Amino acid sequence: MESLNFVKGYGKVNPAEDNPNSPPNHYRRRRRRIIAIFLAVFLTVVIASLITALIHESATESEESEPSQLASNSAESLKTVCSVTRYPDSCFASISPLNSPPSNNPFRFFNLSLHASLLEVSSLKSQLTEQKGDPAMKDCGELFDDAASELGRSAELICVGPGEKVFTEMRISDLQTWVSAAMTDLDTCLEGLAEMGSTAVSEFKLKVQKSQEYMSNTLAILNNIQSLFQKFGLTLP
């Protein structure tokens, strides 16, 4: 029995026998399993974070590059729309500052041109305060009010409900009538100033002509709205 114990002493040592305080094998395996799971979860979180960061960076770069590209396309689109007018330079100059965020839709350009015309007529009315003593200017003030009202009605007309068409034949006809009437009001103002020998004719004529150009541009875009939508490959709203 002693020899057996002696041989046993040179065999594979069982740590549990040498160190009674060491944890059993199944506890150590469980600990290693927990550590492995923790490392796997940690690596998953790190990888997911890196992927999220890359996606965010890519999206940020796309957002930073998109506005300039969109603005470029919008500018070319606006030039195309303004090319149908008699005054393409004033058309571009009047619409471009209002085109924010940039758009390349002919309907929006028409809307902005109409809005620019209304702003310009309102500006004319505010400048009449400098010529209070001139009777002809009083008549012009009333004509400017009429023109602003007609342009305002035009703006209201293109505000339609969901599913309702904007450019019906009847609406286009009404828009043409009201914008043309607003242009006539300005012509009448200039004629009245000339007939009464007003000293404000030469100074005021240039300002009125600017408004007339804006209205002429609006009317030209309206008259070509269907062909413009076809050129852009869009459906007429």
TrEMBL record:
Molecular-function GO term, any one: enzyme inhibitor activity
Keyword Manganese applies: no
Record-annotated Pectinesterase inhibitor domain positions: 73-221
Pfam families membership: PMEI (PF04043)
Enzyme category, top tier: hydrolase
InterPro entries: Invertase/methylesterase_inhib, Pectinesterase_inhib_dom, PME_Inhibitor
Alphabetical keyword list: Disulfide bond, Glycoprotein, Membrane, Signal, Transmembrane, Transmembrane helix
Enzyme Commission code: 3.1.1.11
Family: In the N-terminal section; belongs to the PMEI family. In the C-terminal section; belongs to the pectinesterase family.
Protein name (record): pectinesterase
Provenance organism: Perilla frutescens var. hirtella (Perilla citriodora)
